[in-house]
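Table S7 (text form). Paired inputs.
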Amino acid sequence: MSRLTHLDSQGRATMVDVGDKADSERLALARARVTMRAETLAMIARGEHPKGDVYATVRIAGIQAAKRTWELIPLCHPLMLTSVKVELREDGEEAMIIEARCRVRGPTGVEMEALTAASVAALTLYDMCKAVDRGMRIGPVELLEKSGGASGDWKRGEDGS
């Protein structure tokens, strides 16, 4: 197992120095699932939510979250993201899948940005719909794939997870 990169030799939290790392094209894809009542999902799909366009609001929330990850997650670097895409799709009659894809050209990866985007988008969906469905469930939130950097490419399932 690799050592934890955010701890120094004395076990103290530290920000990783990426100053000497070469820039490379990096991509990460994360997913969140939100389960809800069929009536709630149907209301969203029909565009009849009293708060407005749920899809647009959730996408914007995810994009904003990716851009502000460095402010939310300790020890994350601020990144000049080149692309953030948040997509939603129905999964059966009682769930919404949110996928967040982040891209950057830089010395460090964008996994945390993609995971933060998917998480905040899911929380926004919950917030918009809680008045009609407080029993919604969020999860799992997971990294599906990442590419670029010294550690190379990774896809969920390839390493037994």
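Next pair, protein 2 of 2.
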Amino acid sequence: MKNSKGFGKFEVLTVIVLLMIVGTFLLYGVIKQSPEEGMKTMKNDAVKFSSAVATNNDTFHNTNFVYLGEVIDEKLIKEIKNPIGRGNCSVSESFVEMINGTATTTLKCGEYLIDRATFAGGEKLKLYKVSDWEEKKSDKSNDQKTLYNCIENGKEKYPEYYEELYFVYRINQDYGTGHYYADTVEDCKVVAKTFYREKNEYQK
């Protein structure tokens, strides 16, 4: 059956679906911030993350190196949404580290990274763009890191390989242990692999 303008039900539904798809993309484009705008939001989120660690430092097992995942688990901060793309900021690659008495904060959100910022007065904040960690080194790889997992019942326990201290945190949580470094873990067979990625300062 067609309406007075000659459109059948199928055509009308098709137009509605297409309009919904276009509307979704337009809405996403409005919500998604540019890297320049997102950098400001990321900085504010990194400051909140750093502050949550500083004011509750005695809460953590390793007071000199605290991951975002630990702070979220302690319900001291909520998950941080990626202001530039989809999803949340990484709980295993975002951390606050004490270096010579100064708190430095790293926040990774999607493919963007604030790396060991101190938020000191007048500091020019740098934003980096990074690729995923890969086992195979490419011609563009300029950053590398040893990441960890453990084998349990012949399978990798975790869905991804973690930085050493976050790996240790997960082991302590799962096994009720109090390790500080991966080389003391005996709860499972520890596997360490070298991963590579591309890391470059974001250029406007």
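The chain has four helices and nine strands.
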